[in-house]
Structure formats: structure tokens, C-alpha cells
Amino acid sequence: DGGITQSPKYLFRKEGQNVTLSCEQNLNHDAMYWYRQDPGQGLRLIYYSQIVNDFQKGDIAEGYSVSREKKESFPLTVTSAQKNPTAFYLCASSKGDSVNQETQYFGPGTRLLVL
Amino acid sequence: AQSVTQPDIHITVSEGASLELRCNYSYGATPYLFWYVQSPGQGLQLLLKYFSGDTLVQGIKGFEAEFKRSQSSFNLRKPSVHWSDAAEYFCAVGVYYGNKLVFGAGTILRVKS
After folding, report:
1. Cα Rg, chain B, nearest whole Å
2. What is the pLDDT of residues B33-71, one digit of tens each?
3. Nearest CA in chain A to B104
4. Peptide bond preceding A8: is omega within 30 degrees of 0, i.e. cis?
5. Up-side HSE of residue B29: CA atoms within 13 Å toward CB?
6. Distance, CA of A69 to CA of A61 (rounded, Å)
7. Interface probe, candidates A33, A90, A101, chain B, greatest B C-beta count within 10 A
8. I need a labelling partner for A30 at 20 to 30 A (CA). Which of A5, A91, A106, B39 fits?
9. A4–B94 CB contact, under 8 Å
10. Residues of chain B neighbouring A4 (CB-CB closer than 8 A)
11. What is the pLDDT of residues B80-94, one digit of tens each?
12. What is the rounded distance in angstroms from the CA atom of residue B16 to the CA atom of residue B90?
């Protein structure tokens, strides 16, 4: 079955620690996205990538970093500079063959908690 | 800047009753509009989308939505709600060039038996 997988389901971060969230897709999509979800705020875009080896900041990129070395993978690192990392993180992908009118498909999410 | 407003944070309906979830958007051009549903602790599932054409859009699970340009709205409806519809519903508008989505804050639907 084609889809998006995120791991781990739960992640705990200690003070000053960097942690990396995994996102993998086998949909052959070019574009991938990372969103942060906080209660009552909907989803906010952190980073997105429309092609391998290229990515752009979203609305709340500070304290986060990404890489896109493979088409299938778009890992997100939450750095120690992110002072309020507790949230639900969602990865999404879309075909990427159009400048617009694309549908994004979402993974199951990773919940990050601070110890 | 583009934005999406979902005026109702929580809605409670009886099983079998009809449902309407409101969504208003602010966007300077013709919008691409989406409704997603999220069960607790899960990812988002696409219910339906509007890109162009017929303003009444049918989706999965018996949901439909109507695009009204004059009211900048894209309300989600279902004629008869089932207990399994209890979830959080998000409306989103697609931004040209970059395929970014701007989400509303969500509406939590509770279904009482």
C-alpha cells in the first residue's frame, strides 16, 4: 500500500537536545511538507520541499531544520533553539507536478514532548 | 494575506441529525479549498476539495460542501450524522505557487446518541 509513514509515534526531548522526526513516502511524490499542530491553532507550515536537494522555509521555521537528500524522505530536526517544541508534527506530500491545485496527503503524525 | 476562519470551536449534534460546519476564507484570487478530518492522535484525511466548476462538491463518507464566492464561504454539510463522524474538521485554502495550505483552527464535532 502506498502512503506516508512517520516515526516515532511519540518522541521525548530533553533540555538542549536536538531530535529528528522521520517522514517517508512511497507515493512517488516530489513535494513534501512539515506542519506543526497546536490545540486550537490548526496546522502551521514549518518547511516544504518541492524537489530533491531543495527546500523553503514556511511560516514558523525558526528552531527547525530539514534535509531532502532522497525523494522518499524528508526528516525534520527540532533543534535546541526551538523553545516550545511540544506539539503534534505532521508530514504531508503532494505530486509536485503542478504549481497549484495539488492535494496534500498526510502521515499519522509524531507527538513530541519535552521532559 | 490569506486566512481561514472556522467560527465554531465545538459543535455537538445528535446522531441522525444534519450537520453544517462553517468555513470562511480570505484570499485575493479564486481559491482552492479543502476539508480534512482528523481523528484523535491521527493524521488528516481528505474529505473533499474544490478547484473549479460545480460549486457543490461531493466527498467521502457522505459529506458535501458548497463554495459561495459572494460570501467567501465553503461550508461542509452532511444530512445525517453517524457516531463515527465525531472528530476534528479542518478547512484549508490552497495558496498559488508553492502549493501551500493555510488551515483554519478546526471544529471539534461531538455526536450524542
Report:
1. 13
2. 999 999 998 999 999 999 888 899 999 999 999 999 999
3. A42
4. yes
5. 8
6. 19
7. A101
8. B39
9. no
10. 43
11. 999 999 999 999 998
12. 22
